[in-house]
C-alpha cells in the first residue's frame, strides 16, 4: 500500500499549504479583534481591494474610469504606462494606510463603545462599500496578477521524491512561496508586537483599553496602526490568492474560509490562527479525499464549519483563545 | 395635533395593554390594513407585485423571524438563507408528495419542519456564545445548501437540480405556478405577513418574550433569576426558524416558482435579512417591516434612477449600488445604532408635543 500512503501524505502536505493560506487571512482578523474588539468581516474584501489596487497600479489603469466615462461620456481606461512591481507594492501600501486612516476617522471613531454586534455590522457595511469602490475604481473584470512568484509543479521536489520513493510528490511552487511568506510575516508580526514600542502599546490596548489610555497610549493611533497592519496582511493574502486564482470577486469570499479557522484557533490568538488554519486545511483536504466521494463531493464548502462547530461544543473559546469568564 | 393621548383614557387593563394605546395610532393601523387588503389588490399590476410587494412582504416575515432570534433573544444568526432553503424544499416535497392537501397548509407545515431543523442547529447555542455562535450558524448555512444541492431526493431527482413549484389552487384561485394572478399572490403573502406579525407581537410581549429578552440582556443573570436558558434559547430558535421557513416557502412557491438553491438561498440572503433587522431596528416588530421595505425599495429605486434616468451602464450602476448600500448601513449605524424603528419612536415622541413643546 505505499502508493496509497504516499498519496495520503501528499494530500496532507497540500492541506497544510492550503491551511497556511487560510491562516494568512485569519491573521488580519486576529490583529484587529485583539486591539479593538472589532470582528472585521471586511478582511476578505480588503484583500480583494488591495490586490485590485496593486493590479490597477501596475497596469496603469485610470481609477474610476468607468464612472468618469459614464458621467462625461469619454472613453478613457489606461494611462498607458506600466509600473514596476516593487513601486506598485509601495504605492498600494500607501493606499492601505490611507484606507486604515479613513476607516478609523470616518467610521469607528463614531462607534467607540458600541456593542460588538453593531461594530460587526459596520464592518459588513464597510465590506459592501469597499467592494463597490474597488469595482468602480478598477473595473469588475477578472484580472491577472503577476508579481514574479513562480507557479506550477515544483520539479525539484517531484524528481527528488521520485528517486527516493518511486513516487513524485506534486507540490505547487506558489504554495511553497506562500508558506515562506506566511512564516516571515508571522515572525515580523510577533517581533513587532514583542520588541517595539508601538507593538507594546498595541498589546497594552489589547489587554485593557482604559488602562492603556491612562498611561498615555493613544487609542486612535493604535487603532489606525492596527487597521494598517491588517491592510498589509490583507495585501499579502491578496497577492498570494490573486496569483493563485486571479483577482476577482470570489477573492473576497476567502474571509468566509477564515472564519472557521478563527473559531478553531480562538479569536484572540496569533498562533491560534496559524494552527487553526493548518488543522482546517489538512482536515478538509483529508475529508474530501477520504469521505467526499462517498457522499457526493464538494464537502470543502461546509466541512470546515462543521469541524469548528463540533470542536467549539467541547471548547467554547477555541484552541488558544482566552478563557471565557462570565460574571453577572 | 392629531397625535395626542390627552382625553384617551383606558378604563380596563386590556385597553391599557393594547398594542396601539394612542387612538390615532390605532386608526392609522386600521387604515393601513384596509388599504392593504381592500384597495391595493385592485390596483396592482405584475411589475409592482413582483418587484416590490412580494419581496417586501416575504422578507418581512424572514426579518420578523430573525428579529425574534437576534433582536429579542440576542443570538446572532448568519444561517437565515439556509433556513429559508429548508422552508422552500420542505414545501416542495410536501406539495409533490401530497398534492390533494391545500398548499397553504403545506406552507405552514414547512415552517414546522424548519423549526425542527432550527432547534437542531440551535443546540450549540447552549455552549457557544457571541461571535463564535454567529460563525457556528454559518455551518448551518453552508451545510444545508450543500445538502439540498447534492442529495437528489430533495429535488425529486430532477435533471437540472432545480425545484419547480407545481400549480396549486386555493378556493378556485391559482396560488402557485406560472398562472398565478398578481393580486392573488399578493393577498396570500399579505395574509401570512399579517398573521405572523400579530403572533410575533403577542409572543414577544408575553412571558416567553420576556424570557428571551432576559437572555439577551445577560444570560447568566437571567439563568440565576429562574429563566431556563435551554427553553428560552431553543424556543427562540424554533419560532424564529418557523417564520423564516414560512418566508422561504412563500419565496419559492408563490414568488419565484423555480429555485436553484445555491443562487437563491446563499450566504448573501442571510446577510440581507440581517441588514434588514439592523437597519430597521433590533427587537422591534415594526423595525422588521421598515427594514425590509428599505432594502427592497432601495435597489429598485437606485436602479431606476441610475439606469433609467441617467442612462448609465448596468454594471456601473450595480457597483454604485453596492457602495451606496454599504455606505448607508455604516451611516445608519453611526447616526442611530438602534435603527429606523428608533427614529420613528423619537419622531412620535416629538409629534406628541408638537407644536407646543412645553
Defining traits:
heterodimer; A: 328 residues; mainly alpha; ABC transporter involved in vitamin B12 uptake, BtuC; 14 helices; globular; B: 358 residues; two-stranded antiparallel ribbon; 15 helices; 72% helix
Give a quick precis of the structure.
By secondary structure, chain A is mostly helical. Chain A contains 14 helices and no strands.
Would you spell out the secondary-structure blueprint of this structure?
The complex is a heterodimer of chains A (328) and B (358).
Chain A: H1 2-36, H2 43-59, H3 65-72, H4 85-108, H5 116-138, H6 155-165, H7 173-195, H8 197-207, H9 209-214, H10 219-245, H11 254-265, H12 270-290, H13 292-295, H14 300-314
Chain B: H1 13-16, H2 23-43, H3 46-72, H4 80-97, H5 103-122, H6 130-150, E1 163-164, E2 168-170, E3 173-176, H7 182-204, H8 207-217, H9 219-224, H10 229-256, E4 258-259, H11 261-264, H12 267-280, H13 285-309, H14 314-335, H15 339-353
Antiparallel strand pairs in B: 1-4, 2-3
Helix pairs in contact in B: 2-7, 3-7, 3-8, 3-10, 3-12, 3-13, 4-5, 4-6, 4-10, 5-10, 7-10, 8-10, 12-13, 12-15, 13-14, 13-15
Your description of this structure?
The complex is a heterodimer of chains A (328) and B (358). Chain A is mainly α. Chain A has a single domain (2-314), classed as ABC transporter involved in vitamin B12 uptake, BtuC (Orthogonal Bundle). Chain A is 72% helix and 0% strand. Chain A is built from 14 helices and no strands. In chain A, helix 1 packs across helix 11, helix 8 packs across helix 10 (219-245) and helix 11 packs parallel to helix 14. The longest helix of chain A is centred in the N-terminal third of the chain and has 35 residues, at 2-36. Chain A is globular and about 60 Å long. Chain B has 358 residues and is mostly helical. Chain B has a domain at 29-263. Chain B contains 15 helices and four strands. A two-stranded antiparallel ribbon of chain B has the order 1-4. In chain B, strands 2-3 form a two-stranded antiparallel ribbon. The longest helix of chain B is centred in the C-terminal third of the chain and has 28 residues, at 229-256. Chain B is globular, with a radius of gyration of 21 Å. The model of chain B has no long low-confidence stretch (mean pLDDT 85). At the A-B interface, helix 3, helix 5, helix 11 and helix 14 of A face helix 6, helix 9, helix 12 and helix 14 of B.
Amino acid at each position: 500500500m505505499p502508493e496509497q500512503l504516499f498519496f495520503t501524505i501528499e494530500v496532507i502536505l497540500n492541506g497544510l499549504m492550503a491551511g497556511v493560506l487560510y491562516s494568512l487571512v485569519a491573521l488580519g482578523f486576529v490583529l484587529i479583534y485583539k486591539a479593538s474588539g472589532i470582528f472585521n468581516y471586511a478582511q476578505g474584501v480588503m484583500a480583494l481591494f488591495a490586490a485590485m489596487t496593486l493590479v490597477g497600479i501596475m497596469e496603469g489603469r485610470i481609477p474610476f474610469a468607468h464612472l468618469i466615462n459614464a458621467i462625461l461620456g469619454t472613453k478613457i481606461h489606461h494611462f498607458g504606462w506600466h509600473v514596476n512591481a516593487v513601486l506598485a507594492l509601495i504605492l498600494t501600501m500607501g493606499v492601505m494606510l490611507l484606507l486604515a486612516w479613513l476607516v478609523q476617522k470616518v467610521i469607528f471613531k463614531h462607534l467607540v463603545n458600541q456593542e460588538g454586534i453593531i461594530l460587526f455590522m459596520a464592518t459588513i457595511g464597510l465590506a459592501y462599500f469597499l467592494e463597490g469602490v474597488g469595482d468602480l475604481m478598477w473595473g469588475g473584470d477578472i484580472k491577472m496578477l503577476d508579481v514574479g512568484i513562480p507557479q506550477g509543479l515544483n520539479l525539484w521536489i517531484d524528481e527528488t521524491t521520485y528517486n527516493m520513493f518511486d513516487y513524485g510528490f506534486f507540490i505547487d511552487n506558489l504554495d511553497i512561496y506562500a508558506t515562506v511568506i506566511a512564516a516571515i510575516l508571522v515572525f515580523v508580526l510577533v517581533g513587532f508586537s514583542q520588541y517595539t514600542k508601538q507593538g507594546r502599546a498595541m498589546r497594552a490596548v489589547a489587554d485593557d483599553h482604559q488602562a492603556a489610555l491612562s498611561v498615555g497610549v493613544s487609542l486612535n493611533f493604535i487603532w489606525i496602526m492596527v487597521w494598517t497592519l491588517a491592510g498589509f496582511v490583507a495585501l499579502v493574502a491578496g497577492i498570494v490568492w490573486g496569483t493563485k486564482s486571479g483577482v476577482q470577486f470570489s477573492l473576497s469570499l476567502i474571509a468566509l474560509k477564515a472564519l472557521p479557522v478563527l473559531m478553531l484557533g480562538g479569536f484572540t490568538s496569533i498562533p491560534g490562527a496559524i494552527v487553526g488554519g493548518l488543522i482546517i486545511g489538512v482536515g478538509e483536504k483529508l475529508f474530501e479525499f477520504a469521505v467526499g466521494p462517498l457522499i457526493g463531493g464538494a464537502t470543502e464548502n461546509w466541512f470546515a464549519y462543521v469541524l469548528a462547530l463540533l470542536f467549539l461544543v467541547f471548547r467554547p473559546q477555541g484552541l488558544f483563545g482566552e478563557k471565557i469568564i462570565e460574571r453577572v | 395635533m392629531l397625535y395626542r393621548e390627552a382625553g384617551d383614557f383606558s378604563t380596563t387593563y386590556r385597553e391599557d395593554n393594547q398594542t396601539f394605546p394612542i387612538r390615532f395610532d390605532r386608526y392609522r393601523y386600521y387604515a393601513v390594513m384596509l388599504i392593504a387588503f381592500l384597495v391595493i389588490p385592485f390596483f396592482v399590476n405584475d411589475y409592482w407585485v413582483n418587484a416590490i410587494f412580494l419581496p417586501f412582504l416575504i422578507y418581512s416575515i424572514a426579518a420578523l423571524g430573525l428579529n425574534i432570534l437576534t433582536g429579542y433573544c440576542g443570538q446572532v444568526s448568519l444561517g437565515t438563507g439556509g433556513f429559508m432553503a429548508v422552508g422552500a424544499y420542505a414545501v416542495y416535497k410536501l406539495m409533490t408528495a401530497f398534492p390533494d392537501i391545500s398548499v397553504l397548509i403545506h406552507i405552514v407545515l414547512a415552517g414546522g419542519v424548519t423549526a425542527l431543523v432550527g432547534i437542531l442547529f440551535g443546540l450549540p447555542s447552549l455552549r457557544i456564545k457571541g461571535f463564535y455562535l454567529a460563525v457556528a450558524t454559518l455551518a448551518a448555512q453552508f451545510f444545508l445548501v450543500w445538502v439540498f444541492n447534492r442529495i437528489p431526493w430533495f429535488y425529486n431527482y430532477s435533471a437540472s437540480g432545480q425545484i419547480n413549484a407545481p400549480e396549486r389552487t386555493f378556493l378556485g384561485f391559482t396560488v402557485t405556478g406560472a398562472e398565478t394572478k398578481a393580486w392573488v399572490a399578493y393577498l396570500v403573502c399579505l395574509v401570512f405577513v399579517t398573521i405572523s406579525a400579530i403572533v410575533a407581537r403577542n409572543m414577544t410581549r408575553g412571558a416567553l418574550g420576556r424570557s428571551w429578552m432576559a437572555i439577551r440582556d445577560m444570560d447568566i443573570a437571567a439563568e440565576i433569576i429562574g429563566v431556563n436558558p435551554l427553553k428560552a434559547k431553543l424556543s427562540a430558535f424554533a419560532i424564529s426558524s418557523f417564520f423564516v421557513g414560512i418566508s422561504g416557502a412563500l419565496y419559492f412557491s408563490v414568488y419565484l416558482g423555480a429555485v436553484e438553491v445555491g443562487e437563491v438561498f446563499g450566504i448573501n440572503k442571510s446577510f440581507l435579512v440581517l441588514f434588514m433587522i439592523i437597519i430597521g431596528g433590533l427587537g422591534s416588530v415594526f423595525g422588521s417591516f421598515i427594514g425590509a421595505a428599505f432594502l427592497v425599495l432601495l435597489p429598485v429605486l437606485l436602479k431606476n434612477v441610475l439606469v433609467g434616468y441617467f442612462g448609465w451602464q448596468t454594471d456601473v450602476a450595480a457597483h454604485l449600488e453596492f457602495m451606496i448600500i454599504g455606505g448607508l448601513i455604516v451611516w445608519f449605524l453611526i447616526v442611530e445604532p438602534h435603527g429606523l424603528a428608533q427614529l420613528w419612536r423619537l419622531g412620535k415622541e416629538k409629534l406628541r408635543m408638537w407644536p407646543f413643546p412645553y
